[in-house]
């Protein structure tokens, strides 16, 4: 399943529309006022599905992933000198790729969970997400949101 993740152009807070392959909006992401990034994900019926919330007062960006109100895991940016690196503590998955080029994959061992790439030369942040199994769509979206927010927090946007 492919998703197109587009930040809204006129938005004070981080807000995104998530489109499916046919151009229909399938999720909406609304930024909330808080210390650090707080992104809430809704389906098109308005049901709250999950939250990506930045932990504040940390040396490097760290985000917790909640489905409904249950903590499911976290993603954190690691200290490196030459290339960005993220550690994912969620379902035993790992995140690998070229973060300078905005291309990365989430893996479960040798199995690909999803691939994400940023489309350059757009007015707003726009990603293409290719999720292998439909049951991993929400999780994949949350990981991409966290990485995008982490890169913004550290000034690597």
Automatic annotation (TrEMBL):
Name the family.
Answer: Belongs to the LOR family.
Q: Under which name does UniProt file this protein?
A: LURP-one-related family protein
Phylogenetic lineage = Bacteria, Bacillati, Bacillota, Clostridia, Eubacteriales
Write down a Pfam family by its short name: LOR
* InterPro entries membership: LOR, LOR_sf, Tubby-like_C
What top-level branch of life does the organism fall under? Bacteria
